[in-house]
Amino acid sequence: MQKRRRIVLLFGLGIVLPSLLLGYLAFRGIQNDRALVEKERLEDTRRAADRVTRAVDDAMTTAEETLAKTIAELSEKPSAELAPALEKVAAVNPLVEQFFYLQDFKEVRLPLAKLLYLADGRREAGSSPPPGLSNPAEIQAAERLEFQQKDYPGALGGYRQALKNANDPRLEGLILNAVARVQRKSGLIKEAVSTYENIVQEHGGIIIPGGMPLGPSAGLEICALTRELGDLAKSLQTSLGLYKSLFGREWTLERAEFDFFTQRAKTLIEEVLAGQPRGLDLAAFQSKLRTLEAEEAEQRNKTERMIAFEEGAAPALEAKLRGGTDEPNRPFSRLAFEVRNHSYLSSIMRPTVPAGGASNAAWGIIIDTERLRENSLRPALRDNFRPSETTWAVIGKDGAAVLSSENPPAGPVTLRTDFVSNTPDWTLEFHQPPPRLIRTFLLSRRGLYSFVFLLIAGILVFGLALTIRSVSHELELARMKSDFVSTVSHEFKSPLTSIRQLAEMLQSGRVPSEERRKQYYDVLLEQSERLALLTDNILSLAKIEEGRAEFAFETTDVSALLDSVVSSFRERVRHEGFDIELKVQGPIPPFAVDRNALSQAITNLIDNAIKYSADSRLVVVGASVEEQTLAIAVQDFGVGIKKEDIDRVFERFFRGGDELTRTVKGSGLGLTLVKEIVEAHRGRVQVESEPGKGSVFSIRLPLPQGKES
Ligand code: ADP
Question: Is 667 in the pocket of ligand 1 (CB under 6 A)?
Answer without folding.
Answer: yes
